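User: What would this chain look like folded?
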Amino acid sequence: MLFPKKVKYRKSHKGRSRGQLNATSRTKVNFGSLGLKALGGAWVTARQIEACRRAMSRQLKAGGKIWLRIFPDKPITKKGEQTTLGGGKGPVDHYVCVVKPGMMLFEIGGTTDEIATKALHLAHYKLGVKTRIVKKIN
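Assistant: Here's the prediction, encoded as structure tokens.
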């Protein structure tokens, strides 16, 4: 599972979703030949990223390369179930990546377009955000 090795602050503020504010970086296919692009904004958990990576790796059968363009660096805290109010913020439960519309999530290269498309389609099912498969523009 992905998580940061070292963080400046253990817990972070929740922040806010700024509507449909489009991504300004990580918007193009840079490394592979095909990529999976987010169409909406969401929090993608480390578990979802790992599930996508496994699904794509199984489909490729060691015949290509996968680039993860997102990393879960935002800590999400959770208090116990039957805990009363007060007592401060709960411990870190898991990590998420803040995904904006237009952000490239995964890229695949070194294999045929049919296999890469199938692998990215399998990864699409594991995510909680709408996505589109895009091709590199030369």
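The radius of gyration is 17 Å. If you want, I can go into more detail on any region.
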